[in-house]
Structure formats: C-alpha cells, structure tokens
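Minutes, methods subgroup
Present: GH (chair), OT, SY

1. OT presented the first of two proteins processed in the latest run. Sequence and structure tokens recorded below as shown on screen.
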Amino acid sequence: MQKIEWDLEFIKEMYQKYEGTNEANIQQNVVVNLLKMLGYDSSDFSYEHSKQFKDGRSDIAVKVKKDSYLYVEVKESNNKLDGRAHSQLIKYIDGSHEWGLLTNGRKYILINEKIKGIALDKVVFNIDIFNKKDTELIKYLRRENLFDVPITNYFKEIAQFKAIKYPNGGSSWNNYKSTLYNFFKYYSANLKRYRELSLIRVEEFEDFLQHEMEMKNNKNSGRKIVSIDTFDNKYSHIRSFFHTLNIKSNGFDEEKVQLIRRMNLKEEIVESNELLTEENIELILNFYSNRRDAIRNKALILLCLSFGLERSTILSLTINSIKKNKLIIGNRELVIPKKLQEILEVLKEQHKLNKVKDDCLFYTKYNNDYNLNYS
C-alpha cells in the first residue's frame, strides 16, 4: 500500500473548491483523499457496497481485515448530518460490524454501532476539519488507531458513559469529558495500544495527574494545580466512569486520603479577596437590594460567583451545609467569603422565622406555605 502524506490543508482546499456541488464531488475529491491519508488502502474501497446490507447501500465500504469494514456515508456539503442520517448509517452497519463514518466533507462523525442507546448516543467524535480544537482528534480515525492498536476504543467507552449518565450533555458532562479525554489521550499516547479498562491501575491515573500538574505549573500564567480540591474533582470523574460502566477498577476504590498523602497535595484556602473585590461585590448586590427575595437572590448569586456551583448542587444545600465559615458539599469543605457568610446567616434567620418545614436552604412560598424550591 502506498503511503499518502498527511496534508489537512489540502483537504480543506478541496472542500472549499467543491463546497456546494454534488455528493459525488465531495466523495471523490475530499473524503476519499482523507481516507487514504488516514492509512486506508484505496484498493479496498467498495463503492455502493451492498453485500452486508439488508436495506440500502453505503457509499463506501472500506475493507480493513477479512471480516472488518469501516462504512462511510457521504452527504452533500450543506447536509446537516442530523439524527436521520445517523440512523441511516447505523442501519447499514446492522450489527454486523462496529464502525461507521458520516460526513459532508467538512464534518466527520464517527459512530460505533455497539454503543447502547439511541442513534445520537452512538457518536464517538464529531469533528469539524476547520475547528482547530477538533483536528487533534482526527488521528483517532486512522486505520491504525481504529482497527490495529486500537486506542479509539477508549473514546467509544467514554461515549457509552455519556449515553448512560449524561445523554443530554450539559456543564457537568463537559467537566467529566475534559478529565476523561485528557486522561485517555495521555494514557494511549504512552501505552500506544488499547488495554482493557479493568487493567488500568490507579497509579497510572496518578501519573497522569502529576503530568498535568507539572505541565500547568511550569506555565508562567494561570493558577498552580496543587490542591486537594482539584484532585478530588478529577478522581471523582474517573471513579464515576468506572462505576457507571460496571468495570471492576484496579485500585480506584482506595481511600482518597491515602492517594492525597502519596501525591503530597495540600488543602487550598480560598479567601474572599481572591474571588471578588468588595467594590465589585457591592455593585452586583446593590442591584438586588430593593427587589423581592433580596437575601435569597444575593445568596444565590454569590454561591455561583464564589464556587461555580451548578443548579442541582445549590438546590441540594441544607441549613446543615453551613458550618461556621465553611460550606460542606459531600467530602468537600469550601471556605466561605466573608460577605457571603453574612448573607447566609441572614438567610438562616429567615428560615427560622418562616418556619420552613424542610431543612433546605432555598425554598419558595406557595399557598402561604414554605416548601423546597424546585424552580
């Protein structure tokens, strides 16, 4: 097989040249060239391949091994590649194989039929070749990484985790995605092959965290990563990943205090002046002063500004979540800025005066009765 030099700029130029033309032009001038650059042998390309299909024909079936195919469905450049197109490609794969690629020449959506869920849950990558951040993921479409090694399986597992725990995405998913993507990029780059998830050891995750800390701490700008809080978040992400996929983890059930001790992490003290100046706080809070539920709203805005708490976390807070100058959330203890301390104390007094039945910190009034705030 002749090796084709990698040249993404050429692919972009071909797309721009044939953008707006028919599907055949996109297929032959853009998609086929990219597939060859990704290490697939054009002599193994079957066009309008129907052997494996009960209904319909895939545009390109790339034979990788005797019984392994990558099915490619090509659409016109203005096609939005919606759920219908996903379902079409999945029907072509029909459980016989595993991988499919849906594309309009600009976007490349890698689909794995084995992922449990609806059609959109089966997306592993959605790559726009004009998006710089996306282009670093293209290497996982290579024949070597998809079929031979095959390290792209790590990202299939991440997609399965998302389908189960965060099917609708959201900010929580973005936090998990960041940790999981960064870890498996690091892990696969070092190991250079796929390894069963159950064989991944907690020490290898520690190595990743140490590597991240060193990389970020060596930069001249930005906050140094040495805190228990940073470790706690990332460790929770990877543990949840293993737990959700029912993978028997190799050491991830070890007590966090032992890991913290080994990594020589320190508790991070956050002072109010590191978050907002007194002047800025007053400017924000003055807006609420003469409005209904002023104290409640001031507490909400300061919790968001100080700690970046999500809606679900804020709604779960109770009176007992406040211990002197600290906010207790699970195993985390967050130092409360002075201004927020004062407002929370007033909110607690209102809680008593209103004789709220629940110990929730935030509540609503309905039919002259105070209840847990679901709004």
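2. SY then presented the second protein from the same run.
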Amino acid sequence: MPDARETNRTRLRRLTQMDKSQAVAGANNALRDTWTAGLKPDDVALRVGLVQLPGDTAERAPLVRLIQSRGIALRFYLLALFEAQCRLRVGDPWTSDRPLTGLGSWSDFIAIDGAYDTESKTYMPDTKQGRDSSDLRLRQIQSALQALEGLGPARALATVPRAKGGRRRLYAEFSLMKETGRGGHQTPDFYTVPRNVWSVATVTIPADLFLNGWIQVLHPSEVATWLILRSLSQWARNQHTESGVYLYGKARQEEFGMQRNSWEDACQRLRDFGLIRHAHSGDLDSDPDKLGNQMADWWAREGRERYEPYRWQVTDRDLAKDALKICMRELTLRQKTLDAGAEARARKKDEPPAGQ
C-alpha cells in the first residue's frame, strides 16, 4: 500500500509546480474562452452508461475501466464532452477541426506539471530531444486517445484512423464515441449531444468543474467517485436531500468496480475539498464552516451505526471557487497532520518500555 505521506507530498509538489507555471490558470482560460464563445452551457449532460452500463451485464462501465489506465484518459474524454456541448446543439453529431497543438488546441485544455527528475529534484531538465511542456501535453493526449480506443471494439470511447499504409496514427482526426462506446455494429456510434429529459438517462455536471480547474487537479478515482455520487444523488433526489446516498460494499465493487480503499480515500478527499459532505439536514449550499454545520457533520460521521456505509450529499457550492487553491490548502494541512502523526509514532517507538 502506498505511503500516505509520500503520496500526499508528491501530489502537493505537482500542484505547486502547476501553480508556479500557471498551467491550471492557462487551461482554465482556454476552456472559459471556448465556453464564452460558444453556447455557454450551465451544465454538461452525460449519458449514465459512462458510469453504469444498463441491464444485467456483468461488464464494468467505461468510467471505472478508465480509472485503471494511467494518464489523462478520463479527463480528456470529459473535456471533449464539455467542448462538444459548448459548440454543438442537442442531437448534433460529433465533428471537430480543433488541432492537437497550438493556440486554441486540445493541448491548451490540459494542465500538467511536466517532467520531474528525482535525482536533481527539478522540473524539465535538459534532454537530447529538447522537450517542452507542449510536447509533453501532446504525448499525454495521444496516450489518452490510445486508452480510450483500447477499451475494446464495442466499448471504445474514441477511434483514431491510420494513415495510408496503416502504420502512422492520425491522432488529430480522432472521432468521439457515445458514453457507452463505439457499439457492436459496423457503423460506429458517434457521439451526439444528449437531450437532458427524463426519458434519456443522463446525469448533469456543472460547467464549473471545467471552468475553475477541478477537472485538472482531481485524481481520476476522485472524479469517478464524484460522478458516481452525483449520479446517485440525481437518481434518488429525495433520499439525497433527506438522508444522503451511499453504496454498500457489494454494489460498490460489483456494479461500479470501485475497491474499498480507493472509494474511501476519494470520498475523504472530496469531503476535504468541499465537494461532498456527510449527510445531514440543512441547506446544501450553506457555509460548511458554520458551527451548526460542523456539529451536524461530526454527528453524521461519528453517530453512524457499525458496519453501516457513510451517507453522502453532493454540494456544488465550492465548485465555483479556485480548485487549485483549495486543493493546495487542504493537502498542506493534511501533510502537516500526517507528518505529526509519523513523528509521534517514531517517538513512541524510541521510548523505553514502561517500568524500565
């Protein structure tokens, strides 16, 4: 199991670098320009097949399969859906002439920290290839498209044609598929913007997820957990408002493919970042720092019956805030707690046994 201190420290280091290089700010600006120049959707509608496949199939949904792939595949697919709904109207099929690199490109939508050298503890050391951040973002996008296509013939979320001869991949000409994949027919099931009505199984996510940097700084497991909880909150709206939504272990693992450690850690980080809360009565948009809310949150957490799952409510209040600042603040506080705990354990270990 990865060491929590080192994992948190690495994440902080990466976020700090993205802050210094203005990577997240730059990606936010590019996405906001796209939103402003387009249809300005308040929400992005996703077909629920991305989160959970319909029917009794034992196959796992694309969402969880994307968590298992390294890189930015899930992030890129969601960004592509956001871009499409800024540009295309309901029912319009996928088309795009956006380049992979350059001003106004797909690469502009991606924030990364860059290449890190562990020996010198520096970013972007000199190399023979003379790589820069643009090169690295392009590689990330190409890897993401490979992962999206690699979900299988029927479940691929993107397809990339090949040049004549079949060797070179034409990444800039990729096509986006619907949330359930390419389909089993000879004709691909190209992406179309879904209609957000009761007869179409969709889940909506606020545009703020993209405009304020959350899509850039959350881990894939956190994005997936947030989407699952958001889906549950919209499928059971009254229950979500009154007592929260939850997943038992069997449903979490068999229906959504989420392991216990990944799920619990993601829920805790989402709570730290203000995107979910322990379920309790009160306005979902009220200030979580108010004493009443803090007490209600504590009781909801500590008053839980043994073996009962935590019940959660999704809160959109902090989506409108700067994601990078919130994550850096909360992870810094967590690092101090983890370091203090490690130091206390070390001191206790070095103490002589009682009575000596």
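Chair's summary of item 2: The radius of gyration is 22 Å.
Next meeting: continue with the remaining queue.
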